[in-house]
Amino acid sequence: MDDGRGNEKGTSNEIHRESEKVDLESPVTQKVLDKAKVEREKAEEYLVRLQYLQAEFDNYRKRVDRERFEMVQAGVDKLLRDMLDVIDELELAVTVAKNTDDKEVVVNGVQMVLKKLHILLDKEGLTSIDAIGEDYNPVFHEVIQQVPVDDTLDGKIVEEVRKGYILRGKVIRASMVKVGVSAKKLKNNNSEVLDKNE
Using CB atoms within 10 A of its CB, is residue 173 exposed (0-12), middle (13-18) or buried (19+)? Predict the structure, then answer.
């Protein structure tokens, strides 16, 4: 009975016998060996080039990362220097508030500092989100309460609890708002809730 392994062994022996017959001194063999040597040298040269390019790319990436970090730091440094003026003015406002009974002077001083801060942040690309009187938009507004209103203010923002901001076109904080809902809608929603509970 032949399990097929005998043929493999026979084939292996034949190949082994054939390889013993190769004449290493023959011109054909020498030509093949020379060509293999040339190809091996090319492969080694390509490997060296690849390793050099990899190292060069790693150095480039590290340099770009370092330059990007330095640019970000320069921007932060500039912003903090500009903020120092605002801090100075706030400290002055606190000193004036301690030494005066004139509330209006203090309020005006703080309003001036706040205006300066808004101008500074606006230069950096930060803008506030308009809310009061606007239609509710979930991208810009976070509803914290629905307030009964007449039909003309349905879906409109009636109160802003906390300002929202956009930085260079991206919402970084949504406005917290109260949205007007017509009395009819509130009544319908309440009756639907009661029907479901019954």
Answer: middle
Q: Do β-strands 141-149 and 175-182 pair in parallel, antiparallel, or remain unpaired?
A: parallel
Beta bridge partners of 177: 143, 160
Phi and psi of 139, rounded to 5°?
-70, -35
Sequence-distant (6+) residues with CB within 8 A of 163 are 128, 129, 131, 173, 175
Q: At residue 133, what is the residue type?
A: G
What global pTM score does this model have?
0.57
**Residues 127-176: tens digit of each pLDDT:** 999 999 999 999 999 999 999 988 888 989 999 999 999 999 999 999 99
The single-letter code of the amino acid at 98 is K
Q: How far is CA 163 from the centre of its chain?
A: 23
In sequence order, the 6+-apart residues with CB closer than 8 A to the CB of 29 are 22, 23
